[in-house]
Amino acid sequence: MNNIDIIKKPVDQEMDIFEAKFRESMKSSVPLLDKITHYIVKRKGKQLRPMFVLLTAKLTGGINESSYRAASLIELLHTATLVHDDVVDDSHFRRGFFSVNALWKNKIAVLVGDYFLSKGLLLSIDNDDFQLLKIVSEAVREMSEGELLQIEKARRLDITEEVYFNIIRQKTASLIAACCAVGAASNKSSSNTISQLKKFGELVGLAFQIKDDLFDYGSEEDIGKPVGNDIKEKKMTLPLIYALSKADWLTKRKIISIVKNNNNEPEKVKQVIAFVFNSGGIEYATKRMLEIRDEALSVLSTFDDCEAKTSLTELVNYTTNRKK
């Protein structure tokens, strides 16, 4: 059993029920759409988001039909954003498989994303789940704003730590916050409980994104073979932002110039990575990530002990300890 299987244990059966309901919610009378949705479902990832929904529902009173719809709504809208993201980024791979746009071209991918979006809206409206729809729609709006803010800032590379946290709060953390909020909302929890769990999810999402940023630098041993994808894409992440904040004007100008103009030259990218390592950027980002993780665990500690709480604690630790 891997970590995720152990974490999933309290909602094992419910995750199976959710998967059947989710497949049902994606169905269409158009054969092409069914073919594409079948392709997407077969290549699903670790299912962390529906797990957050069902575990928070279990933590706050139990899983019901509304909880399953909440998890399906999250997955439908999240899948829509992923399909659209691959078009925006001109990315041909998703989790090691061809993306929808690589196999069926951009036009179809955009329409498929729109279809998932509409299925999510209808699933909520048909069942009067207006609170769930409001929570998730706000997250989708924030994700779009975060992406646009990142694109705008990438042009000038003038990102401060505060702006960085604004971007990742919207881009990544808002969706995990929505997962935890809809889990609680699905069994009519109080507004205080919903906002507490939303805060918990946001903190987990921030820690999760910083961990992703750290992967881009490999480790001290990997410095000869750096990844550097974020640098190639001119994304300013926390390790680099911190390193630049400590650099003198000349060094700062040189590094920013590489990120702007030489970001596809492996030797130059290696220079930026070495600069970040030597400036303490990795240690600083790791420290911030662990502080945020501890804050998330502190919010969770206010809830009664139960299996779901133990699993959520493990899920938080997993997001900061994972190896990929």
Features:
324 residues, mainly alpha, Farnesyl Diphosphate Synthase, 15 helices
What does this structure look like?
The chain is mainly alpha-helical. The protein has a single domain (3-321), classed as Farnesyl Diphosphate Synthase. It is built from 15 helices and two strands. The chain is globular. The two termini are 17 Å apart.
Helix content: over 70%
Q: Give the integer mean of the pLDDT values.
A: 85
> What is the alpha-carbon Rg in Å?
20 Å
Oligomer: single chain
The name CATH uses for the topology is: Farnesyl Diphosphate Synthase
Label the CATH architecture: Orthogonal Bundle
Quickly give the structural class: mainly alpha
What is the terminal separation in angstroms?
17 Å
CATH class: Mainly Alpha
Give the low-pLDDT segments: 220-226
The CATH superfamily is: Farnesyl Diphosphate Synthase
Q: Count the strands?
A: 2
Q: What sort of overall outline do the alpha carbons produce when their principal axes are compared? A: globular
Neighbour order of strands in the largest sheet: 1-2
Give the number of domains: 1
Q: Give the number of helices.
A: 15
Per DSSP, what share of the residues sits in E-state strands of 2 or more residues?
under 5%
SSE succession: HHHHHEEHHHHHHHHHH
Profile the largest sheet: 2 strands, antiparallel
